[in-house]
Specification:
The protein is built from 9 helices and no strands. By secondary structure, it is mainly alpha-helical. It has one domain: Endonuclease III, domain 1. The relative contact order is 0.18.
Length: 186
């Protein structure tokens, strides 16, 4: 990458470029915001991320802005309603995981902690230098494995180590912008 405006991903699609430049790798805090990212990373499993970005506003609408208590109160009737809503990925397991994860988020709060504090307790040591290529970016790390395990223990689902590493990248726990990328900080 030698162009001053080169992106390590997302070039050519304005939605994807905005996500790359303004969001991916920037710190995300707050239980609703983190629940959203976990749900969307789980929904992305097996799909292209741009598909989820294009459906993101629909997700925000149908999942009440990812307000944990609101989503935790969803019923079987809500699952049926969501299965018919083309604004989101209509996969029953993914929809049910969003509700399960909202309930787990509420349970953390009731236990006197937060998804935010749990999630951010797994920040790895910062990289010395930006990765040179995508070959230098792992699919999972010891921290993402530990985060997945902690979330599962807390009742979360669809939170495997690879999915959680993607969430760590998206939420700014790690900076995996490739060297030469306009957004690379390392």
């Amino acid at each position: 990458m030698n162009d001053a405006t080169a992106r390590c991903f997302g070039a050519g699609d304005p939605l994807y470029e905005r996500y790359h430049d303004e969001e991916w790798g920037h710190p995300v805090h707050g239980d609703a915001a983190l629940l959203e990212r976990i749900v969307l990373e789980g929904a992305q499993s097996g799909l292209a991320w741009i598909t989820i970005l294009r459906k993101r506003e629909g997700y925000r609408e149908v999942f009440d802005g990812f307000e944990p208590a609101a989503v935790a109160a969803f019923t079987d009737a809500d699952v049926a309603r969501l299965m018919d809503d083309a604004r989101i990925v209509r996969n029953r397991r993914k929809i049910e995981s969003a509700i399960t994860n909202a309930r787990a988020t509420v349970a953390l709060a009731e236990a006197g902690t937060s998804l935010d504090s749990l999630f951010w307790s797994f920040v790895p040591e910062p990289r010395v230098a930006a990765p040179v290529s995508w070959d230098d970016v792992p699919a999972s790390t010891p921290e993402s494995i530990a985060l997945a395990k902690a979330l599962k223990k807390a009742g979360f689902v669809f939170v495997g180590p690879t999915t959680m590493y993607a969430a760590m990248q998206a939420c700014g726990l790690v900076d995996d912008h490739i060297a030469g990328c306009v957004a690379a900080r390392a």
